[in-house]
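Re: weekly structure request thread

Next one in the queue (427 aa):
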Amino acid sequence: MSSLVFDLNETVLILTAFEALLLALFIGLVPGYRNQSKAFLCMFFVFIAGTLISTMSIWNKKVQESLVADFTFLPMLLSLCWMLQGPALYLYLKSLHTIIDIRDKRYLVHLIPPLMVASVIQWEGIDIYAWLPWNWKTIPGDQLESVLMVWAILKCFPAVYVIACFYTEHRARAAMKDLFSTIDDNSLRLADLVIYGYFIHWFWAFLAYMLSGHVSGHTSHMHGVLSNYLTVIFINLVFVFGWKNKRELLKMEFTQQQEFDVKSSLPAEASLEAGQNSAFDESSGGSPLFEADKLEPEVVVQEYPIDKRKIARIESAISEKKLHLEGQLNLERFADHVSIRPRELSYILNTVYKVNFFEFINGHRVEEAKRLLSSVEGSKDNMLNILHRAGFNSQSAFHRFFKRITGITPSQYKKLHSPQEKRRRSK
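Done, posted below.
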């Protein structure tokens, strides 16, 4: 009876690679506004699939005994896919809070290390035979040095992007709070799941590499197998999450208005000139959001004179127009209503009210929820209707923010301040 072409581990890797490609296709087809973010995330999963397929092929005995083993293609494919996962994930997270101009030559730096490693593999003729550790004693010394260098780069290189991804995700959250009164929890949880999965996968592979010279060959092989299975678990978790949330996966709508980053500034002359205009200046040509990424770090935050009339318009928008009760309110829409430039509005909120836009709007929503919960009408309503009437569109966000401000849950507040409880205490 002929032996199987693939063993159980290899079959699992093939199926997981196929699943990663399906996930990339699924994300690409989900309707949403952040097409650039979806593109980078799709690339990330395609690179994972490429890593799994090339890994499985290199370690497959049938492939090792075939003519393919004499070519450098598979080691190059594995190296490129492995090293490009980090840049793809980093750019995905970065695209959540800024528009990435792919024509900018600065982004080409992400391609340099993978291309250099691929060039070394091709130049030194590192084929499948030279790639496998148990053959290293039989290959020439110069080639062995190149193989060891490539392996070291592959295992250590992702650490740079692990750090960059955590920092970028932190910036994305901060940026969203400056621009939106609601946050897409599904997209943030997806970002968390992807970044932590990537970190665990890399760290285990790095640990296996560091221990490879101190443990037996069998143990080293088991570390590699477990690393692959961590990828399997990671892909399945993301797939289940994506399927569960379906259309909500990446429906984060960000405006491309350049006036939004309160932490950055235009040059003083341009800012002062722009500050004399109305809420939206379309003469700028629509440059990308967070243009500050291209500014020098020495540029300070533009300060605007605090105009009491503008503060009065902000207060009126809350007390009279009740704008905070709109579930999908963002900084641009609020700024349009009060006829204040978005950047200046952010400055006023941070300077006068000591909060960002997210905290400012949700603080007033909590006050509305408190009013409803303590009213005769609200005491008869369920909590889901209360939170929607107060402007929240997420039950978890409502409970989290309400408790953060009041120190108790909405249910506890309702029991303490309901008309029935007030009457009971007054007796």
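The chain is about 65% helix and 0% strand. The mean pLDDT is 77.
Next request, please.
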